[in-house]
Amino acid sequence: MESAIPHINDVLFGRGTSVNLHPGNRQFRSLVESNKLAFTKAKKNKQKRAVAAYIYNEIQSMRPPGRFLEEDPSINTNNASMMGAFPTSADLHPSILTKNWSVVDPEKALVKILKRLREKDSRVQVPVEPVLTQNMTDGGFSASHSKLPSKSNPEEFKFNDTRAMAEVDHHENPPAKHSFEGGNLVVAQAQDDRQSWSSDDASHLQSHLLHDNRSLAQQSAEPEGQVASGGSEVSKYLERIGLNLEADFLLHDTTQQVEQDASQHLFEYTLRQWIGALKPEISFDTVTSLPSSTQRAQYVKSALVIALKLTECILEAEKDERNGHGNPIPLASITPENVLIRARKGGQHAVVSESTEEQEKIEFVWVMSSFGDESATGSVMARLFAVGKVLLELFSTKDPHMEDDLPSFHKASIDAINLSIEAEDVSPTRKKHRWRSAQSLYKDSEYTAALESNGVPWSLCALVKNLLECRHDPFCDDDAYASFADLYADLQLMVYNPACFLDNIHIPNNPRLAIPENLYGRDEELLKLKESYENHITDGKISGVVISGGAGAGKSKLASHMQSLTVQFNGYFLSADFEQNQMSHKPLSTITILFDSLCEMLLTDSSGSQLMKIENELMSALGSQPSLLGVVPNLRKLMPSCLGTETSASSNCVDSAVSMRYLLCELLRVISSNSKPITIVFDDIQFADHASLLLVGSLLFKAQGSTTFFVLCHRDDGASMSEQFTTWLRPIAMLPLDPIRLESLTPEAVNNLISEALHLSPRLTRLLSTVLHRKTRGNPLFVRQLLDSLTEQGYIYIDLKQHRWAWDLEMIIELEISENVLALFTNDIQRLSSDLQFGLQVAACIGSYVNESMLNYLSTELGFDLKNILQQASEKGFMIDIDGSTMFRFAHDKIHQAAYELMPERQRRENHMRFGLALCTQSLINIAEDEELFFAAVNQINQGGPTAVLEPSQKNVFAQLNLKAGKRAIELSDYNTAFTLFQHGISFLGDDDWKSYYQLSLDLYDAVAEAALILNKLADVTTYTDIVVLNARCFDDKLHCLITATRALGVAYRQEQSIRASFAILAQFGENLPSDMGDDNLSHEVDQMNNILRSMSDDMICNMQESNDKKMVILISLYETLAHVLQYFKPWLARAVSLRMIELTMKTGLSAKSPLVFAHFGGVLVTSGQITDGCRLGRLALKLVERSGSLQYKSSVICFTYDKILWASEPFQLIVEAHLLGHKSGQQSGDNIFAIHNLLLAILTDYVTGQSLVAIEKNILDFISKLEAQGLRIFFKHPILLLAS
């Protein structure tokens, strides 16, 4: 074997620190890591071996050529005597040069390379250091993170946890030392064979560490033709194994990357040489040459990286000692002259500053042990003090000539070293300080004062001071360092979060804590949220998440993180927050505003052709006259052809609430199928009203499998989980929604929060955070507010001497603090000035937010600038100033609750009435333009109640306002709100309401009875109709309530009672009871009416005048309802009822129910054998129902016409399609009964035509699921459903 003398580019086989730290081995490991991705992607063994061959070739292509060497004891050459012939060998560890080495053959080298390529990287990644660039803003110390150039992965490394102490693995097999990876790992210099260097060797080495860099430049400038002979060996080897290196696709990109990085140069310095190299450019002499803040910031930033890597070096040495791999660094070696730095300049990733200086990147910092150094490692405190002296010189750029006055026991005992890198115990004990001489105190302050005068940030001055304080152990200050782990953690924070932990804090006259709006201690929850969203995007199986937790746990903050995730996938993000008391909202506005924003987003992002496609789909889904146009204004822009045709939600609906739910679900379906991914957050959904809960539930069920991702946030404490909400939540739990529950913060998370709020190291705030965690039980909102409260009271303050936040821990421990956050908020509000308290109370009466128009009107009413008051409250953290003071929102609903409950009950009512009157005066001017203001005024008046009315004459006005607001709520499809408003209106009438306000009373009771019927509050229907019957002056005034009561009986499945009640009403009208279908006179009358209709064309009938007789319209409506019931329970009477309806229609004119009238009579003709005439009337009914006033009955007309009439003349396939259209029309109009009936008839017709039984069974089971979801029990009695069940 060929003998060889190692040089810096050789790769050495073997173990130990000296081999592991050999420059060639470090380069080799970097090459291996850079090509692992290509190796992993290679599918064939030949391709994998080609990657290894490429690495072999790269080593041999270096200048001087690198070789693979192994120790050969059989060779007796004395390498030490030949050192003078090889200048580069001076950079090597002496133990390497005392051994004999030989070159290994290529095959053995390739086996070694393949083995290293297959190794898995199990390390926790160490954060990368900032790139040292001079392009910094004046005065700033923020660090930008950049990874070293990677040959296989050029992407930026994202650093996640700057607080954690990074673990570093053993790259060599045990007991090998650690390696450098990607510029992140700092190595420690040690003796593999426990042999010290001679002083001459050390001096010779230092002279070459920063030897003329021209040698490196000369090496890189050598002619490319001078390639090592080993290169030909590689080519021969590749030919022998059948590979073409140039043709291998895996190797081209990597080779190109190496060429691009060839311009990078390595430089090595001692610490003092590094300081000297920069000192001519960065002068800290404040008398002669005060440097710019930019230069100063860059120097501090660079020096911080060196300090961090030096600390990491010492930590690694201690870790190795603990694992039995070598000796730690001697105490005497920790000096500026023994600290070595390797830096890299240039390369494709270099940033050139304005001064054209190349950027410098610190790669290594290690400590060199020189001959003559004492082997004692000293105690931890002694070593910390030694590092303090090094850092003092580093940041002051001067040798402080500090005397080493350590006690002897600190220098000698290795057993005293604390090898633990874990955080120290933080039990609340304080050290006793020994007496110190005035001279000692003066020197310590003199050192730190020198740093401050040089512009070094206060926090960094304190860090150095706390290191120097270690020499006084065991009588040092409490802030003194106790371990290198603590020092390393603090340096990491300064490097990676300089704005918080490095920059000087601002000290105003009245300092307030600025608590970062970060999520502390929620890493697992954030990860789960991210995984759920990515799973939704990938396969759509997960449709959202449900975030639960107590008040102030951070649910809203976690949900808001979805915005950044949605943006990453180029999606739409929308959020709706439900108000606890909903004092200022118009019905369903929380959700309809969200849909309005969604329509605007889609309109902005879509092209003309896309908008045409979307409009066509919306027309099909919503109908040609969608009632949504009135509640979602931007929908008009997506459906321009419908402009001018919009109607209220109730005018064309049987049940506008059911219709609204269906239409909004369809709107979301169409938009989601034509847009980017959509994320919708419903925050504080436990506060949602019943109508909103039903709507959100429908959206969740209907959007399964779409691109819409839902986030539901709710409290799960007993007070918030109402029976209504619990009932609603039960079926929601069956949906594919991932649950995320937020528990209280851990002590460590609270410490992180407090640490960043106070701009101090976590080790310094741990005692305080332990106390506050115990007092707040880890509730994030409680912690934040308590910090603000303690600052306000002076328990947390700024220490002007130390330029940092400080606190009185003993006083805080003894302080009586409220047991819950609500009481704490109450106490904090009570400490405010009277003006601020009143301003918060005004806002609390209005609701969770106050908009600009309300502010202006209330300011006029109250006589002071409410906007200015709320701005001051925002500065103190109680309110949030939105869009330049155009709106103010309470920072949390607990603050809202605290401000509201500070007022006595009577004062609340008086304020509500006063504010309601002020808003009402303005809102009545133009309700259409500011409906929100109108509803806010009415709600304020209702919150005040009848007892707050000062003038009795106002009661009539307030009752009328509630009637108007209730009717508008019905138009907006919110019957729950309407029912409540009607009840409030009745409450203002008083005991003599029927005498003083007869018509108003009649209108309110009629309205509340009908709303109760829609809401299925049947007991309330009976109560209110009985009052009307008792107090109404005539039958006509009773009629509306009587019909409502009759319909309620039908809803309650009391059909016999419903029929009798209908007959009673008909008798009051003077109508004869219907005759039996066997009556001969009845048949004759039917034929006569048919002859009349035959004499009229379809156009003549369609163009008949509209009926103006309201009484007759009500009578026809009553007959139609009765006819429908009789079809199923007394069909022999249905013929006479149908005849009477057509007679009244021909006499008085057309009405909204005329299509049903003609359909019923057409059915009578078909059963009488007059099929042609019956089918004609059926088709006529289908034509009449397309009129705007009759659209709500389209589903029932289709159902009856095709089931009773056109089945005799139309193909079955057409009948199926017609019933499916009837099902869709019923959903659009909120006619659930006939929508379901049409769907059932479509399934039955498919069954009759012989469709696949498998498909029929599936359709029936889906149909049964819909029945169960909607609680429509009546259909379960159908024979085919009983058979399927």
Automatic annotation (TrEMBL):
It holds the Pfam family DUF6824. This is Orc1-like AAA ATPase domain-containing protein. The lineage of its organism: Eukaryota, Sar, Stramenopiles, Ochrophyta, Bacillariophyta. Residues 518-700 form the Orc1-like AAA ATPase domain. Residues 10-119 form the DUF6824 domain. It comes from Discostella pseudostelligera. Residues 135-154 are annotated as: Disordered. Residues 135-152 have a biased composition (Polar residues).
